[in-house]
Amino acid sequence: SPVAANVTAWPYACPIGTAGGVVSCDPATGKLWSEPRSMSVAFSTSQDITYGTPGVGLAVPTSATQSNLIQTISLSVTNPDTCRAATILQLQEMAFVLQLPAGARAEYGFLNNNMVQHTNRGATAESDFYVQVAKAIPLGTIAPGATQVFSFGMYLGLGTNGAAYTSGRAILRIVLVTA
Q: Percent of the chain having pLDDT more than 70?
């Protein structure tokens, strides 16, 4: 015969027969338990970096592409759900502050993704040119309770006519969602 349990009414508009989860009985105590609740959690880190002498900076590499790794930011994350794998979303933001004499050019972005290319087409210097760019990347899953290190690199190049970078900003966020 079926077990009778003292329960509350189904509080949702969806049908219990197709949307309800599993209920299990703890054989040691006889207590009923439902499936673990889903969760979402976000982790974040950031870096503000100064390069070279303030106001002067360092020369933007002159390579033909922005393939010069300047800075890497990393974040170690543990899936707090010890029962289920979590879906991973990596959100990364970065920017360089550029000093661009007349006719100078620079390009920056993430690996294999040139996000900003700017040339000073004016007759005077551009000081503190800055554009912050962002990218969201789905990365699969992380096992229950597992720890993983996430990172991205900031790349810079195509420097001409005395282009320099004086500072940079990197933000790395990891969002984990279990269902």
A: 97
**What's the CA gap between 132 and 110, in Å, rounded?**
12
From the centroid of its chain, how far is CA 141? 14
* Residue 120, helix vs strand vs coil: coil
**DSSP classification of residue 83:** S
At 65 the pLDDT is 67
- How would you classify the pairing of strands 164-177 and 40-50? antiparallel
pTM equals 0.85
CA-nearest of 61, 70, 5 to 33 is 5
Quick one: average pLDDT of 109-123?
A: 90
Cα–Cα distances in angstroms (integers) from residue 163 to residues 59, 102, 144, in the given order: 6, 9, 47
Q: Which two tokens stand for residue 14?
A: 């969806």
Contacts of 178 (CB under 8 A, 6+ apart): 38, 39, 40, 79, 81, 83, 84, 85, 86, 87
Q: How far is CA 111 from CA 10, 44, 67, 97, in A?
A: 50, 20, 7, 18
Q: Please compute the mean of the pLDDT values over residues 115-122 and round it to a whole number.
A: 94
Q: What does the pLDDT average to over 74-93? A: 96
